[in-house]
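Ticket 4471: requesting a sanity check on a complex prediction with magnesium ion. Repro inputs:
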Amino acid sequence: MESFTQPQFAGGPGIENLQIKNMALIKVHDKSFETYLPEEVILKRVKELAAAISRDYQGKRPLFIAILNGSFMFASDLFKQLTIESELCFIKLASYKGLKSSGNVVTAIGLEDDLFGKEVIIVEDIVDTGKTLHNFLPKLMHQQPASLRIAALLHKSEATQFPLSLDYIGFEIPDKFVVGYGLDYDGLGRNLKEIYQLK
Ligand code: IMP
Ligand code: MG
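Returned structure tokens:
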């Protein structure tokens, strides 16, 4: 594994003082949510992450592996802003034990690329307990990529129970449920341009 210098953007900016101009209350299924991260705030941050990644990977050609479904919007906006040559693929993680989800990730559907010697960047919408990535990373490491980093738009650090090193973080957020910008509540809300927090 090649070592990198610690990226400047790990940690995420303070969002405590964020002024939200057009506060909205919405309903998704039975629950009420309020505006938490407006579209322009998200896009500005995604652009900063893309700039940091483009700088860190200058002269390299990273492969972005975006985890479906939640990360499709983040992956798309991040990828558009990159100024270096890069590849992108989407995978789906399935956790099954018999017919019931066990929470133990066993399969990555759609991972066709051979990762040997590649500079891999995982793209996740949100790291909550950290279990998904904690279970998945050893499988990727097995293929001996040249390097492996994680870009997560959101991180609920209070909720994270599984040790993970996140290299690019959009926003550190409290342990409250959020929807929008790819994230769903029971299937709905992914199309929202903003991120909303459970009220
Ligand atoms: P983890 O394995 O606990 O880190 O959870 C990761 C996955 O849970 C994410 O990729 C999301 O799909 C989902 N998730 C966690 N928190 C939220 C949330 O607040 N809103 C929507 N989905 C969430
Ligand atoms: Mg996800």
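Notes from triage: The first strand starts at residue 25 and ends at 28. Leaving this open until the requester confirms.
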